[in-house]
Write a structure and sequence with these properties.
It is built from 15 helices and 17 strands. With about 425 residues, the chain is α/β, with parallel strands linked by helices. The chain is globular, with a radius of gyration of 26 Å.
């Protein structure tokens, strides 16, 4: 099956938004054994969009289109495709009902433009949008399947994973099943991970191994195609073992759980609690954890002790410690972690102090970070990190390192050095 991807939106051409959909959809297609031959980006112009659609239909079996399904006049994807194919658009009552229900919950009437989002191709396939008002649509015409999805990532990605992917699998020949497993790594960059797995990636066939860099971490997707789930898992198992033999120390989980979700789950399962003391991360760890449902049962509180006055006055870090060793030091990190645990009467206290940049602090270089982890009944441990990146990148990496250290302690009883 030959496929191509079209992303729609003038904002993409102007560079106001980065096109991440083409990469995401290409990876997803590759995992399904679908070859993507072309990427195109076109603005919100009816004639140029129609020209792009005609070209795609002349050379591909599957055309994946992202964007242009909104309620405004410049959202033209469905209308342009209908003109190219000579097919009418008809109302889809369930989609219209979902739109009306959404606006009713908001206590307002449906704007006229939103009703056009409920138009679909007669006889086509409709994909429910659980995170927005524009349903996805698929239609097959003269041997070519066109698949339209909304542009916002929070709408497109769940729709693709939950509804579009099974539809694409149904288009593939044979009755084989495709099984994927995701492994999550922290503390190793994408290039180093790929280098350690170079032979597996270069010689892959079935199963496939696909690394993906995310925010300050890396995920690895292992995918196999076989006659049954059991057979697919049997194909993946030797490769999985090789991956974990080489990189198991960096692997913090399998599946869809993020690092912060995993920490909250383990704290709740073990009926343990956490107090935080953050300096250079400015409350980022607390924010990451408290976005997880149920986190109130595990996170007792946190202090953003950004200045030496806050470290001493709010947390009670001895001034003598800061004067002798500096606010960015293992001694200060240790005192912050201990005081966080004591202040919130929690099982764990985690602290972060460091230099996020752009300038050095107290003669300490940008990227130097100390993480403290205090546990009731155990010695407090301090971790010295040297992190690279801009200010935001260092803050994010420091926060994730703190979470990684905590989850290792929760998993093994003692974090690894």
């Amino acid at each position: 099956m030959r496929a191509e991807i079209i992303t729609v939106g003038t904002e993409l051409l102007l560079g106001q938004i980065v096109d991440t959909h083409s990469a995401y959809l290409s990876r997803a297609c590759a995992e399904l054994g679908i070859s993507v031959y072309f990427h195109s980006t076109v603005g919100d112009n009816r004639e140029r969009l129609k020209e792009t659609l005609r070209l795609a239909g002349s050379r591909s079996d599957l055309v994946l289109i992202a964007g242009g399904l909104g309620p405004t006049e410049d959202d033209l994807t469905k209308e342009a495709l209908a003109e190219v194919l000579g097919l009418p658009l008809v109302e889809h009552p369930p989609s219209i009902a979902r739109i009306e229900a959404l606006f009713a919950r908001l206590g307002t009437s449906v704007p006229p433009g939103n009703y056009k989002q409920g138009l679909v191709f007669e006889g086509g396939k409709v994909f429910v949008n659980r995170n927005g008002t524009a349903p996805g649509v698929a239609v097959t015409h003269r041997g070519v399947t066109y698949l339209l999805m909304p542009g916002p990532p929070r709408e497109l990605i769940p729709m693709f994973e939950e509804e579009v992917k099974p539809f694409l699998i149904s288009l593939l020949p044979g009755e084989d099943v495709i099984v994927s497993r995701v492994y999550r790594f922290f503390g190793i960059g994408e290039s180093h991970l790929e280098d350690r797995l170079k032979d597996l990636i270069q010689n892959q066939g079935n199963p496939t191994v696909a690394p993906l860099a995310k925010e300050a971490e890396v995920t690895l997707r292992l995918t196999a195609k076989a006659g049954s789930v059991k057979e697919a898992e049997k194909l993946m198992e030797p490769v999985r073992q090789k991956i974990l033999e080489r990189l198991g120390g960096y692997c913090y989980g399998e599946g869809d759980l993020s690092l912060e979700e995993l920490v909250i789950r383990r704290l709740l399962e073990q009926k343990r609690t956490l107090g935080l003391a953050e300096s250079c991360t400015g409350g980022l760890i607390a924010r990451m954890l408290t976005t997880v449902p149920g986190s109130s049962g595990a996170v007792k509180g946190g202090v953003v002790s950004y200045t030496s006055e806050a470290k001493g006055g709010v947390l009670g870090v001895p001034s003598a410690v800061m004067e002798r060793f500096g606010t960015v030091s293992m001694e200060t990190a240790l005192a912050m972690a201990d005081r966080a645990r004591e202040t919130f009467d929690s099982d764990f206290g985690v602290s972060v102090t460091g230099v996020a940049g752009p300038d050095p602090v107290e003669g300490k270089p940008v990227g130097l970070v100390y993480v403290g982890c205090a546990e009731k009944g155990c010695p407090t441990r301090i971790y010295r990190l040297r992190l690279a990146g801009n200010r935001q990148g260092i803050q994010l990496r420091a926060a994730k390192y703190a979470l990684f250290i905590l989850q290792e302690r929760l998993k093994k009883g003692e974090a690894q050095t």
